[in-house]
Input
Amino acid sequence: MPAPASNDSARRTAASSISSTMLQGLKSHDSTAWSRFVKVLGPVVYQWCRRSRLQPSDSENVMQEVFLSVAEKLDAFHRTKPGDSFRGWLWTVTQNRIRNYVQRWKRHPDGAGGTDAKMQFEQLPALESSESAEPATLDADCIIVRRVLMLIRDDFEHNTWQAFWRMAVGGHASADIAADLGMTQDAVRQAKRRVVRRLREELEGLL
Output
C-alpha cells in the first residue's frame, strides 16, 4: 500500500536525523535533556577549547556561546551521510565559536584583560577551517561514556548496577557476582545486557 510505505519512510528519515534519547529531548526543548546535554558534553567542549590553547576563563565563555549556538541552530543538524554525528557537528560549532571569540578580541583588545590577555591571544595558533575534522581523541569518548554512566546509574536497582559494573568493567566472573549478590548467573548476564542496552541508546549519535 503506497501511503503506509510513505509514512514509514518519513518516520525512518526523522529517526535517522536525530535518534538518541538526549537529542530527541533537545529537539523538544526538554529542560531535563538540556541539563543532561550540558553535563555530558560540556566537559568535551571545554576540553576542545583548552586544546585550542584558550585560558580557562575564555574556555568557559566560549562554552556558554556554544550552548547558545546549539539552542539556536539545532534544527540545522542532520545526518546526511554515513559517519555524520551530533558530536562532529558540535565540534564544528565549537571551532566557529572559538574563531569568533578570538576575532572579537582582535577588534577590541582593550576590553579583554590587558597586556596578559593580549599576549595570550597573539600566541594562539591560526585556526583551521570550520570543516576541519574533530581530533580523534580517546579522552572525549571516555568523558562522554563516564558522564552518561553517572546520569543513568540511579535508573537501575542496586544489584542490577553492581552486576553490570562488576562484569562489564571489573571483569569478574558471573558465578562470583551471582554468589555475592544472591542472583542467578542468568540474572547477572541479563542485568549487564539491560544497562549496556540503555548505555547504547544514550550514546547513539554522540560517539
About this structure: The radius of gyration is 21 Å. The chain has two domains: 18-135, 156-207. Residues 18-135 form a domain with the Rna Polymerase Sigma Factor; Chain: A fold (CATH 1.10.1740.10). The chain is about 70% helix and 0% strand.
